[in-house]
C-alpha cells in the first residue's frame, strides 16, 4: 500500500485563517521522511496512530512530533514518520494565530485545546478513524472558524495585513522598508507588531519565506522529499553565486545553506557533498 496525500480547500468560514487542509494516510511498515519548510506559517495538526519525530536541520536536535498547534516555522526540519498513521493538518495563514489569540513561539507546539474544544478534536479523530477525510476536514475548519468567532481580533492586525500580503506576494524578495511602506507604518512599529502578533521579526519572516519559495521552485507543491531539498541546495551552492545574492534570494547565507545541507544529510544518513 502507498502513502495517500489529499489536499482540501478550506471551508468558507475558515478562509481568513486557513490556506489549505490536508490528510495523509500511511500504512503499517512504511517510514517516510520529508522536509518541513520554514515559511512563517503555523499549523494545526490532528493525528491517529504512530507518532513521528522532527530533526532540526540547523541544530540537529530531535524532538517528538505529535498533535498540536505549531507556531510560525522559521527553520527547516526533517520529519520522520512511521506507519500506521493518519494526519490531518490545517496550514494556517501567518496572522491566524494572532487572530485566534493563541500564543505559540516560533517552531514550538502547544496542545490543541489552546485553540479549540477537546470535543472538536475528538470529532475530527472519529471521522478520520471512520475513513471520512472530507468530514474530518470540514470539522477542523469549522472548529477553527468557531474559535475565531469567539475572539476579538487585535486592531493592529488590519494595519499589519498589507505588509504580510506583500511578503507572500513577493515571495519574500522585498525589504523591511518596502513592507513598512505597504502597511503605511513606521519601521519601528512594523517590527514591534510583527514580533508581538506574528512571533517573528520582519527580517526573520522574509528569510523564511525566501527559503521556502527557493525550494518550492525546485521541487513543486506537496510534501518535500529530503533528497529533493538536498539537490536544490547543492545545485544553488555549487553554482557559485555571490554571498550577498545567495542571501537575498534564499534568505540564508552560504554558510547557513551549507549547515542546512549537512543537517538534512545527517538526518538521512547520507554523505555530505564535498
The main pleated sheet reads as: 6 strands, antiparallel
Q: How are strands sequenced across the largest beta sheet? A: 1-2-9-4-7-10
Q: In percent, how much strand structure appears in the residues?
A: 15-25%
What is the straight-line distance between the termini? 37 Å
The chain-level structural class is: alpha+beta
List the total number of helices: 10
Mean pLDDT across the residues is: 91
Compile the SSE list and pairings.
Layout: E1 4-8, E2 18-26, E3 31-36, E4 43-49, E5 52-56, E6 62-65, E7 68-70, E8 77-82, E9 85-92, H1 96-100, E10 109-110, H2 118-129, H3 133-149, H4 156-169, H5 176-183, H6 187-198, H7 202-219, H8 226-238, H9 243-250, H10 254-268
Antiparallel strand pairs: 1-2, 2-9, 3-8, 4-7, 4-9, 5-6, 5-8, 7-10
Amino acid at each position: 500500500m502507498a502513502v495517500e496525500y489529499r489536499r482540501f480547500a478550506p471551508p468558507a468560514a475558515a478562509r481568513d485563517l486557513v490556506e489549505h487542509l490536508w490528510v495523509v494516510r500511511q500504512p503499517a511498515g512504511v517510514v517516510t521522511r520529508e522536509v518541513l519548510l520554514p515559511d512563517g506559517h503555523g499549523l494545526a495538526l490532528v493525528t491517529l496512530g504512530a507518532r513521528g519525530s522532527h530533526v532540526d536541520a540547523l541544530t540537529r536536535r530531535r524532538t517528538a512530533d505529535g498533535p498540536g498547534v505549531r507556531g510560525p516555522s522559521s527553520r527547516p526540519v526533517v520529519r520522520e514518520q512511521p506507519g500506521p498513521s493518519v494526519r490531518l493538518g490545517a496550514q494556517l495563514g501567518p496572522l491566524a494565530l494572532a487572530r485566534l489569540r493563541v500564543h505559540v513561539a516560533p517552531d514550538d507546539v502547544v496542545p490543541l485545546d489552546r485553540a479549540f474544544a477537546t470535543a472538536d478534536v475528538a470529532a475530527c479523530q472519529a471521522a478520520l478513524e471512520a475513513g471520512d477525510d472530507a468530514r474530518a476536514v470540514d470539522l477542523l475548519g469549522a472548529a477553527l472558524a468557531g474559535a475565531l468567532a469567539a475572539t476579538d481580533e487585535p486592531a493592529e492586525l488590519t494595519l499589519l495585513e498589507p505588509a504580510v500580503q506583500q511578503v507572500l506576494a513577493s515571495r519574500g524578495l522585498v525589504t523591511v522598508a518596502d513592507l513598512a511602506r505597504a502597511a503605511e507604518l513606521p519601521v519601528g512599529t512594523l517590527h514591534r507588531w510583527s514580533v508581538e502578533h506574528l512571533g517573528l521579526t520582519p527580517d526573520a519572516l522574509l528569510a523564511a519565506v525566501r527559503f521556502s519559495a527557493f525550494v518550492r521552485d525546485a521541487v513543486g507543491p506537496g510534501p518535500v522529499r529530503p533528497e529533493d531539498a538536498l539537490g536544490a541546495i547543492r545545485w544553488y551552492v555549487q553554482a557559485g553565486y555571490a554571498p550577498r545574492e545567495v542571501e537575498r534570494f534564499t534568505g540564508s547565507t552560504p554558510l547557513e545553506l551549507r549547515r542546512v545541507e549537512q543537517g538534512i544529510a545527517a538526518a538521512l544518513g547520507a554523505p555530505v557533498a564535498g
